Amino acid sequence: MASSSYEKYDVRKRNPNPKVAALLVIDVQNYFSSIAQPILQNLLTTIRLCRRASIPVIFTRHSHKSPSDYGMLDEWWRGDLIFDGTPESHLMPELNPNAQDHVVHKNTYSAFRNTRLQEYLQERGVEELIVTGVMTNLCCETTARDAFVRGFRVFFSTDATGTSDPELHEATLKNLAYGFAYLVDCNRLEGGLFPNQQLT
């Protein structure tokens, strides 16, 4: 595999502790299907690995219910918003959440803003977050940074996050590796959670 530009910043190595970790799957909704499709198999592998390690899975859904919750997103994206209840707002069917999974509804980039995500995690003793989903440089990055400053140890997936441009993806990985998150991919995650075992 070709060398990635973020590798020189990826100097801190650590594996998630499944006893205190949770997986965040951010905004893998029909609206973002074209961006999510290229990473979908890696994302499903990551979910499968976490389920196997008894790591809870949390999905986020981004949508808006009224102009009162648009904030700056309406100005920035010129009205191209996801509205609650539309087919575009639904999670992609391939994710197939189960009854034990938790879904967080949000209306801005950070999954912590105006949600009870932090309280939900703290009530369950979660200290670490594995971040996956879309878009790498918007909701995933903002949530990862927010988690870090709130005191969570952050693991950020390089191959189960995606965005509209490879340059933006790489820029996020550089910044997060430099100051906010341990980088993981499917192979590193499997090796860390299941040393000397193979995924079946």
UniProtKB/TrEMBL annotation:
Segments passing through the bilayer: none
InterPro entries registered for this protein in UniProt: Isochorismatase-like_dom (IPR000868), Isochorismatase-like_hydrls (IPR050272), Isochorismatase-like_sf (IPR036380)
Source organism: Prunus persica
Family named by the database record: Belongs to the isochorismatase family.
UniProt domain Isochorismatase-like: residue ranges: 21-185
UniProtKB keywords: Hydrolase
A GO biological process held by the record: NAD+ metabolic process
Xref: Gene3D superfamilies: Isochorismatase-like
Domain of life: Eukaryota
Name of the molecule in the record: Isochorismatase-like domain-containing protein
Coiled-coil intervals, chain numbering: none
Keyword presence, Hydrolase: yes
GO molecular function: nicotinamidase activity
